[in-house]
Amino acid sequence: MMKKSTLVLTRKIQLIVDLPTQEERKEVLDKLYRWQNRCFRAANFIISHLYIQEMVKDFLYLSEGIKYKLVDEKKDKVGLLQRSRMNTTYRVVSDRFKGEIPTNILSCLNNRLHSSFNKDYQSYWKGESSVKNFKRDMALPFGLEGISGLSYHPEKKSFCFRLFQLPFKTYLGKDFIDNQGLLEQVLSGEIKLCTSQIKLDKGKIFWLAVVEVEKDNHQLQPEIIAEASLSLEYPLVVKIGKSRLSIGTKEEFLYRRLAIQASRKRIQAGVTYSKSGKGRTRKLKAVDKMSDVEKNYVHHRLHIYSRKLIDFCINNKAGTLILLDQQEKIELAKEEEFVLRNWSYYEFITKIKYKADKAGIELITA
Fold it and tell me: What confidence tens digit (pLDDT) does each residue in 97-136 have?
């Protein structure tokens, strides 16, 4: 039987603490922030210990003839470690933060950092990059063991579950990307839920749900090639044989974005005369709101443009998509500050890559 091709994707879903009183909800939020602090510290401990373990041969430059292996001393007589390498870093953080954070979070964090460190090790060893430094607002990873009782409650019109016995319910809002449908598929077993994360942002709680979904099967033909090009006149132009499609316009995308930026500048000019009361936060509230308006507008337009591109390829059975002259476009964006700031090449390419992968289209950048 042929193995099904799958794709791992992440959906951002807002969560609300499912408790009746403000005091109880605040207590849960405070606990999450404490966990975040411990997770941030644990991540820096783990990555530091991994680096030292790998570089120990360079730290032993004063001694000659020493033989060692980064393995358990019980398994090899020249082993330096008292336990397995994976367990060494886990024990360091679990002993230090015992009772302050669920061990499932520490275990998932440890596994993730071991994996990423192994990928980046060569660049560390060559001196091409420095060891990662984790920030205080990092997300909390957790495994499936940490989540329980996921179900839909019609009276609350939301999905409810417990995360390490803390009760939460989802807030899906307008749900343009159909997170409700995705969670329903998780409940029915059609989609597999993987190790996910909790992200805290300005007092709000977000569930970064990681799921494994099957790639779409559109019976595409690899020999049919779609050629797409990003330009200043049109966000996207694509050609398949004699078929040609221009997606978006300069006026639609760029001018609207510049109008939002101009509005933000006018608000900034008037900040001095804004009503005070809570210091800087109160005065910059309108400015921050316009920044979010611009970010959401760009995100939405690029999502629509990339969706139209992939749909055009699917309708024409194109199994290969070539993005032409991308290196030239990227160099132009680097040289021209106006282009780099306003045209969002990198975000656009990221969205195209994700949608092409899901549709089973091979993406080539030239």
Answer: 988 999 999 999 999 998 988 888 888 878 888 888 888 9
Q: Distance of alpha carbon 102 from its chain centroid, rounded?
A: 22
SS (H, E, C) 146-160: HEEEEEEECCCCEEE
In this structure, what are the phi and psi dihedrals at residue 239, rounded to the nearest 5 degrees?
A: -135, 130
- Asked if the model's pLDDT at residue 264 lies above 80, the reply is no
Delimit the CATH 3.30.420 region(s) of the chain. 221-365
What DSSP element (H or E) covers 361? none
Decide if pLDDT at 2 tops 60: no
pLDDT of 323-348, one tens digit each?
A: 876 666 556 555 554 444 555 677 78
At the topology level of CATH, where does 221-365 sit?
A: Nucleotidyltransferase; domain 5 (3.30.420)
Q: How far apart are CA 170 and CA 152, in angstroms?
A: 10
Contacts of 296 (CB under 8 A, 6+ apart): none
DSSP characters over 255-303: IHHHHHHHHHHHHHHTGGGS--SSHHHHHTHHHHHHHHHHHHHHHHHHH
